[in-house]
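User: I'm curious whether this sequence folds into something compact or stays loose and floppy. Could you predict its structure so I can see for myself?
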Amino acid sequence: MSDARTYPQRPYLAVSAAIVRDGKVLIVRRARKPALGIYTLPGGGVEIGETLSEAVKREVREETALTIEPVALAGHREAIVRDAQGYIERHFVILCFAARWLAGELMLNEELDDARWLDPAELANLRTTEGLAEIVAAAIERLARPG
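Assistant: Here's the prediction. I'll summarize afterward.
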């Protein structure tokens, strides 16, 4: 499967959400390459004309059927994947948001094959995207701030 995001001419902007509900964070497992079998946060690419807030709400709704409230930026990650010859196969800049669960129950789309509401300490037991525990910690801290 090839698209403009494979061997791109520029980095692609994406968003994700560290969704907190009753002190637990939602972690999802990717069912497709390039992150097949890795636990991460729900999210995806920003579409043209979409604000970051609109994009993260849409992506979470599409992937999990949940309605969320993005509260603050929790950090960012850069995903740069090189092929065997050293060429850039994928390059994403991912803005990660701290978010609150508002409504809905989990219903995963075909991009995901597992989802769990976990205590943040449980992340250490999973194969996750790089820096996930730090992003989740930052999100929880931002959600705890008043006003």
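Summary: DSSP finds two helices and seven strands in the chain. The beta strands are 12-21, 24-30, 39-40, 43-45, 67-82, 88-103, 112-118.
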